Amino acid sequence: MSSFSLPTINDNPDGGWGPSSSNLPAQFKFKDIPYAPYSKSDKLGRFADWNDISGDNRQTNIGLTSAQGTTRGGPGGRGRRDGQPAFGSGTASAFAYFHAEDESSFSLVDTKTGTTRRGGPQTRGRMTGRGGQGYNRGAQRGGRGGFMGGRGGAQRGGRRGWRDWEKTNRFRESSVAISPEWAMLDEIEFHRLAKLRLEVDEPEDLDTYGRLFPYDKTYDRITTKSEKPLQLVDRIKYNTTTSDDPVIQEVMSVLAAKDTATVYTTDVILSVLMCAPRSVYPWDIVIVREGNKLFFDKRDGGPFDTVTVNENAADPPQDPSAVNPNNPNEKVVVPETPSINSATSLSLEATYINQNFGFQSVIETPPPPPVDLAKPNPFYGPDETEPLASCGYRYRVFDLGVTEDEDIKICVRTEVDAYSPGQGNPRLGQGLVTIRALNEFDPRSQGAGGAPDWRTKLDSQRGAVVATEMKNNSCKLAKWTVQSVLAGADLMKIGYISRANPRDNTRHVILSTTSTRPTDFAAQLNVSLANGWGIVRTVTDLCMKQPEGKYVLIKDPNKPVIRLYAVPSTAFTVEEDEDDPGFDEEPESAA
């Protein structure tokens, strides 16, 4: 007869259910492993998943079910057929293995599947221009601003679509060569500038100079069907830098008696600084500190003497580069005559258009008569015989003090181009007008920024045209608006001027003109004057912390950042510029 014996029963002295932890062998103690719910329907997907290495998921899933290790439709996993998550799949896996080593040096090169292009290799486009127009640089130190028109030879546009490195890696050169002897003092990113705010009260008018002609209102009635040719008008208009302004020298003596820390500049320079976060192209401002005074100057032949075109476009116009950034040893042939649609050619063309449209759109023969401001033009000498352009200078002082105890002021020379008849007395700052022009070169050219054809859309879909220009020329329009607000202009006239033939940059036609209030247009552009004044005050405080000397504020050509450098006192002087063949001691008159 078989024997029967009872199995050994391990009693739990703690009174709980199951065996006591003290009676279990060491290999069966699971006190360090948390409870993980599971489902009997779960399947083992894979032991190690090497596919999912994107993002921050740098781990290998070991022993996980398909529902826990992968998601529905994800790489390497089918998911559950019924579409319901497995029991416990939402619980964080306690069995995940994390790498202890640093993987910051590893990077994923490419996980995309290659696509096949249809239609064969990309077609190389070519654009030919029959006539070009060169413009001589004016607006030099203490001279007349403007550009003379001249005839050039035949020009060929560059090929499009075959130099991919030019589109993906655009390396612009700095507006001024940075010497290794210069000491960088500070660096400010644009995102920090965009957070600055300073509310400034209404300015104090010191004096007015110049003569203003009335604006011709017939230009407001021009349409694409009644276009008017742009004329070449020979007038003189000055663009003197701050330090060479005789009126500012007189204002200095008056404010010096009050012992106030004062900044002196022009509206052109100040608008660039106030709209710095919108800028893409490089620029530089020469700053001189003498005691408690700061002078913001422009450099002769610098970016302040020209007008940019489609600076903020996603694919802006480019100048031919002599170096391939991906392969510096590769030789790239640069044409001797640049394309009429290159960045430099378009900038000179836009400057020529702006000046001539302002000269042409005023009435020089009474009635109505011109208005002489309080004092004559301070830059027009007694020996000058050529006719002056319509221009009025208003010298205004803004208070940049944050508290009542601070006495920091900025003296700005502002400009207006005409006055509107019947809108008040221009001598009292009423009815003042600033005149600007947008230009169209070729909607199908590289750098056009997706702009619609003005001749077909300007009358019927003006909103689309304006929206595109506000996107492609955000910085330029913002600077024009800030200049108009600083000058106290009531109206800003913007002309839409296009080439008579897209392949000829020498003949232009006026297609339309719009009128807007600068304050309203600033709201449409989302231009904050308080932010601009905050930037000016920040740069002023930064320069006031430095000892007396000369400095230069430079916008990085390829990054959204500005840098302040200390430079020798002999930098950017006339003696250095005379060695440059591009320096023009006797500037040409405006065209």
From TrEMBL:
Residues 113-126 have a biased composition (Low complexity). Signal peptide: none annotated. One of its GO terms (cellular component) is eukaryotic 43S preinitiation complex. Residues 1-11, 56-67 have a biased composition (Polar residues). Residues 1-23, 56-88, 111-161, 307-327 are annotated as: Disordered. Component of the eukaryotic translation initiation factor 3 (eIF-3) complex. mRNA cap-binding component of the eukaryotic translation initiation factor 3 (eIF-3) complex, which is involved in protein synthesis of a specialized repertoire of mRNAs and, together with other initiation factors, stimulates binding of mRNA and methionyl-tRNAi to the 40S ribosome. The eIF-3 complex specifically targets and initiates translation of a subset of mRNAs involved in cell proliferation. In the eIF-3 complex, eif3d specifically recognizes and binds the 7-methylguanosine cap of a subset of mRNAs. Belongs to the eIF-3 subunit D family. This is Eukaryotic translation initiation factor 3 subunit D.
